[in-house]
């Protein structure tokens, strides 16, 4: 008679239900695993045998076959150890078969039976809830998986605890959701001396999730401004925290503390490969754009990134998702992030500094910034020139508003947008608005419209650029607590889009 247990196989951020079938029949003693397992799954038989031996459970001298169904779905990872052990224990009547089938199980077994944490507990819990089953997982994964509230999560420390729970000897208590401890950031926007225009751009970008580009001389504070962006961002909503954490769970970025409500802030080095940024590799893993989902992707020294890497950002910026296609995988990952770029104006960095002349100006700047293609640059909602900081500004004791003050204004603007897009679940902030909806919420008054049309004709704004100006203007109006978009809102939005000094 065949016994059954259940686990999952990961495909992108989705976890597909896998039935683990075990048959013990007469024949030469053997232990085989079929159903397209990889090397780690095939090695599970040795780990399971050793773990059962540590519990003084002897395997029968018969032919044991484990089948992972569906057989055409690739099975990868060490989390198959626990469900294989459960199906085998049910087949030899150590555990009740009907109880084992009520759980989705995942976990790696040590040789002494200890359950080692594995990746993907959160997506596995989602799948278990969809199929009306509980989840059995290692103790270290319980706080993470328990965030899925409509399924029972049992987190065990070892295989012996699982056996005692399933047999009813010592039932385990359900795991409770865990939240990563919030460590207060030591950085504050008040520490930035001067750069009021850069601070204003950060506030607008944070309120509407607009892509932002800083250009300035070395040491002017571009990286310092970007590093303080997380201090003014609103916390993740429960829905956002769940979708973001599912990606982080697959990447192994969730520790025993549980899920974090802080928005991710990723800053890859400019030597990062295309696979590291976009995702992929042999098993089509998520890249930095997906790890920054619902957060910020900061790319310092943007022109230094390989041209091919920069060009692959264009489609994810527009669609909010990235498709990773490989010979053995074709998966989609969400990547709705805010892109913040920083660059020097030229190779030497002092093209616009009157105190230091650039010997190759203006060709030096044209060649250097030309590494960023026009279509990619067009996707930045705001472009800000960061001038060198004057020594008089550095000597000031008060750097201006604190991060808490700015964050309060950003939170109010985000709350207005949440009410505005309540009927559109796929939209959360002004950067998501498009088409007819954008016309409804971001049509300026007559004076603002006249200014926008004049600027669009004078500076040859693309259709994308025109709509991005409207989105930024809508966010500026939200920060101003204004229902309509007026001429000053359009003028400020244009000032972040057009060359400096052209909007009057």
Notable traits:
504 residues; alpha/beta; five-stranded parallel sheet; four-stranded mixed sheet; 22 helices; 18 strands; elongated; disordered C terminus
How would you describe the overall organization of this protein?
This protein is of the alpha/beta class. It has 22 helices and 18 strands. It is elongated and about 85 Å long. The termini are far apart. The C terminus is likely disordered.
Distance between the termini: 82 Å
Question: Approximately how much beta-strand content do the residues carry?
Answer: 15-25%
The main β sheet shows up as: 5 strands, parallel
Regarding quaternary structure, what we see is single chain
Helix content: 25-40%
Radius of gyration, in angstroms, nearest whole number:
27 Å
**How many individual helices?**
22
Quote the average pLDDT: 91
